[in-house]
Write a structure and sequence with these properties.
alpha/beta, 33% helix, 348 residues, globular, 13% strand, 13 helices
Length: 348
């Protein structure tokens, strides 16, 4: 039967309910409908469906197909409503790691860093991924001739001399990554104390420079670059995508963490698990979230990051979602996550 202009096709699982709009998972704009606006989601059957999705068949259309983006990026001077975040008693060095690709590691690293900096904290992001996506999103140069993480790991260069100030608002600095890092794995093999090169560099940096947070963005692998980050860090943040296969590989990462704790870094702890790319329209997302919370109950943030077009678009403008579209639910969720992480750091 052909669908006419007035016929509504309910997405599977709604059972004819009359849902209300709650987020910008599709078009990036917060709903004006009163009701369940927030970042803590219940079972999928209880999650309202955004207005824009009511006529969309989930099996045949993706979120990006629903509504073309017409807005222009928000100027950097646009302010995001925020609050001053609590300052940790000592520098928190957080490694964002998961060897599974496409789970939102870099997106999480840069948006959390920006949110923490907007909260009045000093943040250093160390880009350890040869793709340099974190450097792009934070608006710093990272061409092949730009010195950065490679020179720190291979040549012993000082972090303070190579870190660049981000174009994002707040006290945010970036040690950029270049394509040269792609060969660093091989070059490090024959280097003395190869696993602790980054740790020593950060120790020297923090001895003379203040920082509330150091966030390490890793490549999607468990090679020597990621190992250097694990040895340098005091805690690990694992982003987990709310989709099938999400938990595959996490057990391998946990085994690696335990090996690092036993041999190279006794201070490393699993501090945070973040659920990313949450799609409120699917039961699968809620099931994955429940599974993650059953394994990592205390470590999993209450705040969930939704699948959002705005979050995906921001890096193409050299911005985080906080400056690209500050009113989007994605930006608000990262602000909530940053506040939750900062508060945990004070109470732990």
């Amino acid at each position: 039967m052909e669908k006419n202009d007035t016929e509504h096709v309910q997405p599977p699982g709604t059972d004819g309910a009359n849902p209300t709009a709650v987020d910008d998972a599709v078009d990036g704009t917060a709903s004006s409908t009163a009701g369940a606006v927030g970042t803590e989601w219940g079972p999928a059957e209880q999650v309202p469906i955004p207005e824009v999705l009511r006529d969309v068949s989930r099996e045949t259309q993706s979120p990006s197909d629903v509504e073309p983006v017409t807005e222009t990026p928000v100027d950097k001077e646009t302010k995001v409503s925020r609050e001053t975040l609590p300052r940790p008693t000592s520098t928190r060095i957080m490694v964002v790691a998961n060897q599974k690709g496409g789970v939102g590691k870099t997106t999480t690293a840069v948006n959390l860093a920006a949110a923490l900096a907007r909260g009045g904290l000093k943040v250093l992001v160390v880009d350890i991924d040869p793709q340099g996506n974190a450097s792009t999103a934070l608006g710093v140069e990272h061409g092949e001739d730009v010195p950065g993480t490679y020179e720190v790991l291979i040549d012993g260069a000082a972090v303070a001399e190579l870190a660049q100030e981000s174009t994002e608002e707040g006290d945010l600095w970036v040690l950029p990554a270049t394509i040269n890092l792609a060969g660093a794995e091989i070059e490090l093999v024959s280097t003395v104390a190869r696993e602790s090169r980054l740790s020593k560099a950060l120790t020297k940096y923090l001895a003379v420079n203040e920082a509330d947070y150091v966030i390490l963005d890793c490549p999607p692998s468990l090679g020597l670059l990621t190992l250097n980050a694990l040895v340098a860090a005091t805690e690990i943040l694992i982003p987990i995508q709310c989709e099938y296969y999400a938990l595959e590989g996490v057990s391998q990462l946990m085994n690696t963490i335990n090996l690092v704790k036993g041999e190279l870094n006794d201070d490393l702890v699993l501090g945070t698990v973040m659920l990313t790319m949450f799609d409120a329209r699917t039961r699968l997302a809620a099931q994955v979230a429940d599974e993650v919370r059953s394994h990592f109950g205390a470590e999993t943030l209450r705040t969930v990051i939704p699948r959002s077009v705005r979050i995906s678009e921001a890096p193409s403008y050299g911005q985080t979602v906080l400056s690209y579209h500050p009113d989007s639910i994605g930006a608000q969720c990262y602000l909530d996550a940053a506040r939750e992480i900062a508060e945990r750091g004070v109470t732990q």
